[in-house]
Structures are given as structure tokens and as C-alpha cells.
Amino acid sequence: MVGVALSDCGRVDGPTPYALHAQAARRALADSGLDRSVIDGFASAGLGVLAPVEVAEYLGLRPTWVDSTSVGGSTWEVMAAHAADAIAAGHANAVLLVYGSTARADIKARRRTSNLSFGSRGPLQFEVPYGHTLVAKYAMAARRHMHEYGTTLEQLASVAVQARANAAANPDAMFRDPITVEDVLTSDPIADPFTKLHCCIRSDGGCAVLLAAEDYVPDTAKAPVWVLGTGTSVSHTTMSEWEDFTVSPAAVSGRRAFAAAGLTPADVDLAEIYDAFTYMTLVTLEDLGFCAKGEGGAFVEKGRLLRDGELPVNTDGGGLSACHPGMRGLFLLVEAVRQLRGEAGPDRQVTKRGTAGATLPEVALASGTGGWFCSSGTVLLGRG
């Protein structure tokens, strides 16, 4: 990964989603120091009838390798895996991954409504008539974990509290004021057991990541971040096909990524994990092997997820506080790369696990989740 960037994020009322794509792409290309002519691969999803053809046209690109995989929030980790494979196989030289959304602005302007479900065709027709919304699916899974392992509301709330604490040092975060466990527990109810602060924010924003073949490294503006290993997995669409509500597809994608990289969870210095809801962070940490199944509640307590904690998680504030314009998975990769480069700034830069002083982290993990734990993509990144 040789170039990363955010577009304007948070409250962005003027630009269109296409404009946010272009802004992020230009910034990522400038960050890489490469010329746009090297881009022969393009990946995009979620915009246009013929994504990524329409977005590539808007950006003035004519790629010979494209990917439009759309599996929800994990789309970008899956696309990164595809791009790395394509580059390694010689099918592309430089692949641009780009995303942009005006989800918040569209609702404020009444151009759209909140998405309670992803549709009512196919297998989903057996759930939608009964009001089984997206948030209700996550809430049901969280309740099952609480019932089976004794996970508490306070433990789930601590995930949101730590995400907000990490966001406090991030000037790009949409919400930075500190919150307490009590604030989370007493905020407006959404779907039992979730209150408003258990749920991700709705923002505008975009970002881009440029991956390039090793031959281009001497020409890049900054040291690259290397893709060490990837893993992907899909599980289910309907809740009736989910064998265990307490196990996500990250249990498969994480195992495959660690095996491909020849690493273990103990080697990871920071983790960027999709957090549409507090429960997602908790159960994904279990499934990736950072703690045993059922011990996620105890693991997330006592500040372990803070920037200077035992395992810094969502160091930008995550979807719970920084930004969540829709399919947030690409933001995880941007933040992971910036942390590995040492570009996060003095107030929120992570240091290597187990060291004193200012040693930069060496290994970062990004794990995206799609749908209601329907899909997962895990990418391990390394510095140097």
C-alpha cells in the first residue's frame, strides 16, 4: 500500500458522492508520489448502476483490471485481498480502491431514508415482514452472547467509551467529547440491548487506498506498507442459517490471514475492527484470537482498547465516533497504514506492543464485517 487518504468527512453537505470519490483518489495519488498513468486496476462498490465503470469514468481512468465485489462493510478488505493477488499474479500493476458516500447529507436533505433492511427478495422475504431490521439482528446476537457467556451491558458500553476516547485526539473525528459508561447505558434505546451510543454514527465521507507492485516502491513518496496476509469468508443471509450467533465469519477470515502471514495475534500491535455496533468489536476480537470465546467482555474492560492500551483498537475513533458513511471497511485500511507509517500525530500515535519509548508499530490488522456478520475480510499489514 503506497498511498492512502481521506476525503472531507463528517458533515459534508455540498459535494456529491462522486466528488468525494475524486477528492479521496486525488489525495491518495498525491500521497503515493506516483503518476496517475500507473493505475491500471480499479475497485469500487456502492455507487452507480455499473460500479466500478461509472466511478472510473468520472475519475478519468481506463482500467484493465476491475473489481466490484459488494459484501457490505467487509467489501474493502476483500477487495484489498483481490488486488494484492492480482498484482502478485501480474494481472495489474497499481490498483486504486476508492469509496465515498453522503449518507448523512442525503437523509438531512430528504433524498433518502434510513435503511432498515437490505431488501425483501430472495431468502430475506422470510424475515422482513416480521420487522427483523438490521439493527435488530445485531441486537439479537448481542443478547445471545450475554445469555451464553455472561457478557454485561457495562462491558459492551466500555467499547463505545474507549472508541470515543481514541476519537478525542483525532481532529477528523465527528464526535470527540468524552462519554461514560453511564452515558451509553442511559442514551436513547434503539434495539434491546443497544442504546444510541452502542450504535455507529451516520456521517459523510470517503477515502482511497492505492496498492502497487514492488517495482514502483523506489518511486513512491513514502515507505510502503506491505500486505502480509489476507483471509475472506462469507456465512449467511438469513438469521436462521447462522449456526451460532456468538461466532462471526472473522473466525475463518482471521485464521486464514494469520496463516498466510505466518503470524499470530500476539504479533499484532494495533487492530482496526469494523464497529457498526459495540458487540461487533467484542465478538470480532474473540474470533480473531485476541481472547478466548466468551472472554470478550472481560477483555474489553480496563482500557485495553485505548491508544496506549494493551491492544489499541480503532485508533481513529472507529464507526462509533469518528465516521461511518456506509461501508466503512476502507477507512480501517487508511488508519492502519497511517499508524504503521507513524503519521497519526503525537497525541494518538500507537507504539509497538511490549516496548517502552516511541518505537513505531510493525504489524497492524484490519478486519471488516459485512451485513449482519454475513461476511468478513481480514488483512494483516506490516511496516518495512
From TrEMBL:
Query: By its UniProt entry, which Gene3D superfamilies does this protein fall under?
Result: 3.40.47.10
Q: Which InterPro entries match?
A: Thiolase (IPR002155), Thiolase-like (IPR016039), Thiolase_C_2 (IPR055140)
Q: Do you know which Pfam families this protein is assigned to?
A: Thiolase_C_1
Q: Where is the Thiolase C-terminal domain positioned along the sequence? A: 231-383
This protein is called Thiolase C-terminal domain-containing protein
UniProt organism field: Streptomyces polychromogenes
The top of its lineage is: Bacteria, Bacillati, Actinomycetota, Actinomycetes, Kitasatosporales
